[in-house]
């Protein structure tokens, strides 16, 4: 069926606005919009019909009446007015409701204005417009397209989003971004609703924890589960501060975000310091209103806020892909420093034995007893690249360990009742316990 015949049969069945008619042929012709396509089709039909009428063919009148009756062709109405006696006119000038969009394209300007007024509160480099349609509206168009064999058209949802996106871009001079937009403007043309969704903001860096007894993330009070009780002085927390809270606070203020998620490459225990060049992390800020940040200034603010307990460095913008890399990098090398106390005196040869037996050694660790209540009981294989030991007193020594990430160092010292093998205690047949543990380095390929 030719384009004009197809158009006529669609218009005989339903009233269609220029947008909705032209959209069915969206792939045909470049550099013109759907409403122009629809209008051109209608005008061509009017001319063709008028030609028939002038040559005395009654079929022309029928076509003009179809075009005029749905109220979407002024030209058809005017031709009819001039050719037909007034009392025989079947048509009205009033526009009927478009079968597909219910004339929602009339609200493009209103919705654009609404979106722009909401966007004023946000900082963003690019955006995307998404359209929400009720299922019945989308289904109606699907049925329509199936019935008339439309396979090169654009759908209503797409055209709406695209049109509003184009208008917003013209006014705010920001590009539409399909893959990773800062902002999604969600439009529901049938409900007349516009909503702004601000995508999370990611900032990467490294943190050092220079004191013990600070958890990495917020630790809820085990008594009240965060509600606040006498035991936790109403704070809902086990510890007054965490690495996450110290870092996120200046960021939440600067971005006006609602909350943050803290992702780090592994974690140290509460009583373990994180020294050296620090542990890589990504801070994910939810629903930020501002995203053009002065990271140098924020670094200073975090470090002031951290009061010498927590320090950050190397802050830089990141994204979801970077976060995935960070998570994958968790098994990279780590360096630890541990001070051990022994039940019995130690000899210089003990230190040599330890270095020999633990350097280039594969350690088998069953999930430590102390975390068994929250982790599955598995056996892990962790490799130790290098160990150096130094005696501090008759029954104390310090050990530096460079190993695969994820090794439980405390258990490497104690042996964890035989669940970690080999261990310092077992090798020397001398019960050892860790007094102080520090993470010196998290080595990542960057
Ligand atoms: Zn329409
Ligand atoms: Zn509590």
Give a list of the ligands.
zinc ion
List the helices and strands in order. HHHHHHEHHEEEHEEHEHEHEEEHEHE
User: Can you summarize the main beta sheet?
Assistant: 10 strands, mixed
Specify the structural class. Answer: alpha+beta
Taking Cα atoms only, what radius of gyration do you get, to the nearest Å?
35 Å
Shape: elongated
Write down the overall mean pLDDT.
90
How many runs of DSSP E, i.e. beta strands?
A: 13
End-to-end separation in angstroms reads 60 Å
Low-confidence stretches: none
* Helical content class: 25-40%
List the total number of helices: 14
Beta-strand residue percentage: 15-25%
Question: How is this structure best described in words?
Answer:
With 446 residues, the protein is α+β, with helices and mostly antiparallel strands. 35% of the residues lie in helices and 24% in strands. It is built from 14 helices and 13 strands. Strands 4, 5, 6, 7, 8, 9, 10, 11, 12 and 13 form a 10-stranded mixed sheet that branches. A 3-stranded mixed sheet has the order 1-2-3. Strand 5 and strand 6 form a beta hairpin. The two termini are 60 Å apart. The relative contact order is 0.09. The mean pLDDT is 90. One zinc ion (ZN) binds next to loops.
């Amino acid at each position: 069926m030719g384009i004009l015949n197809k158009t006529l049969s669609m218009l005989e069945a339903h009233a269609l606005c220029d947008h909705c008619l032209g959209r069915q042929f969206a792939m045909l012709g470049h550099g013109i919009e759907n409403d122009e396509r629809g209008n051109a089709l209608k005008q061509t039909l009017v001319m063709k019909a008028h030609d028939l009428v002038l040559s005395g063919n009654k079929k022309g009148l029928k076509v003009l009446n179809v075009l005029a009756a749905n109220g979407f062709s002024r030209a058809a109405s005017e031709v009819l007015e001039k050719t037909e006696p007034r009392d025989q006119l079947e048509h009205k000038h009033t526009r009927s409701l478009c079968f597909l969009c219910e004339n929602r394209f009339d609200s493009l300007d209103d919705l654009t204005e609404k979106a722009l007024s909401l966007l004023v509160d946000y900082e963003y480099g690019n955006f995307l417009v998404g359209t929400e349609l009720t299922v019945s509206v989308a289904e109606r168009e699907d049925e329509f397209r199936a019935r008339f064999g439309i396979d090169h058209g654009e759908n209503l949802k797409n055209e709406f989003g695209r049109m509003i996106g184009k208008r917003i871009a013209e006014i705010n001079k920001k590009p539409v971004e399909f893959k990773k937009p800062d902002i999604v403007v969600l439009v529901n043309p049938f409900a007349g609703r516009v909503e702004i969704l601000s995508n999370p903001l990611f900032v990467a860096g490294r943190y050092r924890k220079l004191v013990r007894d600070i958890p990495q993330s917020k630790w809820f009070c085990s008594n009240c589960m965060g509600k606040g009780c006498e035991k936790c002085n109403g704070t809902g927390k086990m510890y007054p501060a965490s690495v996450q809270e110290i870092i996120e606070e200046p960021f939440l203020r600067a971005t006006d975000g609602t909350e943050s998620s803290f992702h780090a490459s592994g974690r140290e225990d509460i009583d373990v310091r994180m020294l050296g060049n620090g542990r890589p992390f990504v801070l994910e800020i939810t629903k930020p209103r501002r995203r053009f940040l002065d990271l140098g200034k924020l670094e200073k603010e975090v470090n002031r806020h951290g009061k010498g307990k927590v320090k950050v460095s190397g802050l830089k913008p990141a994204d979801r892909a970077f976060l995935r890399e960070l998570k994958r990098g968790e098994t990279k090398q780590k360096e630890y420093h541990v001070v051990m106390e022994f039940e019995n005196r130690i000899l210089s040869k003990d230190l040599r034995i330890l270095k020999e037996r633990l350097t280039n050694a594969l350690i088998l660790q069953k999930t430590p007893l102390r975390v068994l209540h929250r982790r599955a009981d598995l056996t892990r294989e962790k490799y130790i690249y290098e160990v150096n030991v130094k005696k501090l007193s008759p029954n104390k020594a310090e050990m530096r360990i460079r190993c695969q990430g994820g090794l439980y160092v405390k258990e490497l010292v104690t042996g964890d009742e035989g669940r970690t093998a080999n261990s310092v205690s077992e090798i020397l047949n001398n019960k050892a316990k860790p007094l102080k543990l520090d993470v010196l380095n998290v080595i990542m390929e960057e």
